[in-house]
């Protein structure tokens, strides 16, 4: 019997302790349950996000492994024979597909994101960057992907236009330009509608070499594609100007900046903040003057980008000689821009000063002229009528 006394005493003490401790209320139990469920949901969401990221990276690595195996089979000669005609047709079909217009979203903004890790992609020229918000993106390994002659020929970090011996006559009829590759490296320079008076092309006989994007002072301006900074300096007319040359041979211009955040020779990825919006140089107010050029020849940036939505219009661009202008081998003449702005203000003032009179029963040209302090001849001139024209009731006449 004694051997059972000790266990019974332990059970009795435990029961006494539980009886003395206050039992939680129903509200407390419900609150603890809600907190536990919320914590479980949060962990589940985090697990789902991480699973998607891991799956995406695994798919990426699998694709690269397949490409490497295909290259290996080609190098060892263990591959099936390819019909040259079929290969040519497939190549043309693929090019036509890439030339089609499509909406390509801007890469996400990495400003302020913490880099957690860098992964080997299986391709020495590319690596994968993991960020603290469970996102990732490709980046080029500049130590492996050496600069080509694109960054050597006509490379000048002080002269705005080093293409003096390049003429439109010597340009090919068309050039196929890959805007993005497997890295999907694109970011809008600034998202917003182009000023209707700041579009590319002639206006009142004056040539506008880019587009004007209204913005607020200090707003970030982004590198459109990956590339190397060729110019970062204050230039008369352009104000604070950054010029980036890209792998595909294009150059993008970012003018009137309030601040430049890069220097010549810097390599920038698409989406890198290269400056802040401003109104420096010959500017009529805060805006980004944005140009796209090829060997110094300017063409309409809206052929590439839908600025209002921030979308790239296609993967591959067929740049035709006809897109250039005979005046595009030099910088924007901002005196023309100022003249257009002054003319716009003058026309707006004239339009605001216009006055009209709606003809009523008994009105005559003489009476209308006296009422508005003008003359009959002036009213006739403004409306293209004669002094003998019969006035119709309800018609509006311009009197000033």
* Estimated share of beta-strand residues: 15-25%
Q: Uncertain spans, ≥5 residues at pLDDT below 50?
A: 2-8
Largest sheet: 7 strands, antiparallel
How far is it from the N-terminal to the C-terminal residue, by CA?
A: 122 Å
Radius of gyration: 34 Å
Helix % is 25-40%
Q: Helix tally?
A: 6
Q: Helix-strand pattern, N to C?
A: HHHEEEEEEEEEEEEEEEEEEEHEHHE
**Total strand count, please?**
21
- Secondary-structure-based class equals alpha+beta
Choose one word for the global shape: extended
Mean pLDDT: 79
Textual characterization of the structure:
Mean pLDDT is 79; it is low at 2-8. 30% of the residues lie in helices and 24% in strands. With 400 residues, the chain is an alpha+beta fold.
Summarize the structure.
This protein has helices at residues 2-20, 26-76, 84-99, 334-353, 365-371, 376-383; strands spanning 115-120, 126-131, 136-140, 174-178, 201-203, 206-208, 211-214, 220-222, 227-235, 239-246, 250-257, 259-260, 267-268, 273-276, 287-294, 297-299, 305-306, 311-312, 316-320, 356-358, 396-398. The longest helix is centred in the first third of the chain and has 51 residues, at 26-76.
Tag the structure with descriptive keywords:
alpha+beta, 3-stranded antiparallel beta sheet
